[in-house]
Amino acid sequence: MATKPSIPKGTRDFAPMEMARRNYIFDTIKSVFRLYGFQQIETPAMENLSTLMGKYGDEGDKLLFKILNSGDFLTHASQESLDNRDSIKLLHEVAEKGLRYDLTVPFARFVVMNKESLTFPFKRFQIQPVWRADKPQKGRYREFYQCDVDVVGSDSLLNEVELLQIVDDVYHKLGVNVVVKLNNRKILTGIAEVMGEADKIIDITVAIDKLDKIGIENVNAELAEKGISQEAIGKLQPIIAMKGTNQEKLETISKVLATSEIGLKGVEETSTILNYAEELGINTEVELDLTLARGLNYYTGAIFEVKAKDVEIGSITGGGRYDNLTGVFGVSGLSGVGISFGADRIYDVLNQLNLYPAEMLQGTQVVFTTFGDKEFKFALQCLKKVRQAGISAEIYPEPTKMKKQMSYANGKAVPFVAIVGETEVEAGKVMLKNMTSGEQKLVSIDELTTTLKK
RNA sequence: GUGAGGUUAGUUCAGUUGGUUAGAACGUCGGAUUGUGGUUCCGAAGGUCGUGGGUUCGACUCCCACACUUCACCCCA
Question: C1' nearest to CA of A345: which nucleotide?
Fold first, then answer.
């Protein structure tokens, strides 16, 4: 008995219309990446579990998809773990591979394995799906695409600026109004030092990162709950509430951080990046946001986040600098900086704003319709010539009712139909109908190709 | 992992205190129209009412479990 087919939770099919839209996004992003000298790589969908485990924290280990060993995998399982139903121990006995969880760890693994043959600074981009055994909800899937672009092996702040330029170019091309939020991990460290709570930096940044969402009072409540002193919270208030231009904010914060060496370093870095950005004429608004924390564990320098101005959605792009990218694989001294474009969220934004260019969706330009075998043969010759001229064309695969053939063209939103009947064959021409205006005229194949090439 | 809602035709949804044959719109297919789609008119197909169990003379309707799905937390993209 045939059961209704379905797909695993959190996964999606992409129909032709969706693929056209997604490819438009991917192609736009790729073209900009290439323009800045980044080279594409791909890594396998599956990695050794030893590569993945322990890189994303305990939560991350739980969210990894594991792949059962081939063959009779239970023969290698110990009786002890089977008897005790010890899933974690059993896992290591029956699974050695897992699906990639992000693109950064496989990239680090790639760099370590190929470091002898790579030219540094190495500029790479990578657009591939990743998998997480998460509970799906709005904007969260178990299979989704990441578009990562990173430079590894260079400490220059120009790399940060180039990433800002890439963001600027990509969203300009896509027609999305965005604001880039910029911060620096060193400034956050400095703030924690000045507050006298340097060891609580993670609690502090996690709390102030929620400012937009839960408000100042709840942030302070959370800080107090984490054991931050009232005096320290008091010192934080003017920093959180800071207003003004980026320049004014930098001046204020450098005074606040006067006693923190690392904090001042962060201010200096940020100032350099902003100056570069201004000189190079970045059109996108770049806002210094001292409450931006974002994935604090990895990042050690600049932190970026991009938000769409016209749509209520989380960040659509984010990243930052992380020293010691490859340290976990035994190679230290390589610093990286990169950002990741969230293709699925960008897709949602473009859908809501209806920003797809019309020509993007056009596939077939003309459909040939015929009435009998003689016309069909003639039309096949015409079709060949039209395709050779580089025009996307098709023929209805059998001579049948006009209505049916027209409906087919209409259903695919094909802009032109070439009608081939007895009189057209005799004249050696086709009746070209414009499906939008309804106008039609008798044309030769040469005239047809020149009309459609416009 | 925690909490709340939902699941009826391809899609979006109605469905009366539990009562004969479960409806609509859109879409699909056919015809009106044998050389003209998108508009109009006529007709048809399409449902184990998420799955399994329970209560009942009788369940789409009430109860339980599970699956799937949406939303909010946690975390993240």
Answer: B77
